[in-house]
Predict the structure.
Amino acid sequence: MAGRGARHGKVAAVENVVVGPCDLAPQVDEALAVQALAFGLGPDEVAIRRQIVLRHLAYPGARALCAHTEDGRLVGFVYGLPNDRTHWWSSVVQPYLRERGNDGWLDDSFVITELHVLPGYQNRGIGRRLITGITDTATEPRSILSAIDGESPARHLYRSLGYRDLARPVHFPSATRPYAVMGAPLPLRRPASWR
């Protein structure tokens, strides 16, 4: 019942990892260290993303959940915000979505901006609890995100939660790999074991 508890401000323990709301801005460097390991970022990319993350966190409605070990080590995080068509991400994905008749997904959606878990903590349900926990707080009727377009544990997770492909391949400026834009109605689908 961890996902439901997050909706009410409670935290969920998963194998000595606690998932709960957090103020991510003061932990941005620790969060980017997680992202660098999970996503394979170099120092130059981390420096650029630092400013982007801090700008995103200042947007109205932005919020984050963090996964910490009992000794306080950050091992995963997610953050997102209500979508706004004027944001950079929306301006890039909008033509791809429009071409496939999915342009309306940019309205009344909560965007999962980043979700990362340290490799040594993956496949333990932490990512699932992070994304369900943050979307449980959304007032929007649906959620959208972008993920590298290929078969991966992340894409499998998103599909298991009810996300489906809305547009692919999507090419972001300076990204070396294509992405898929995915969307799901909220609340996200829960495995039978959570019911």
About this structure: DSSP finds six helices and eight strands in the chain. Residues 66 and 166 are 28 Å apart (CA to CA). Confidence is low (pLDDT under 50) at residues 1-13.
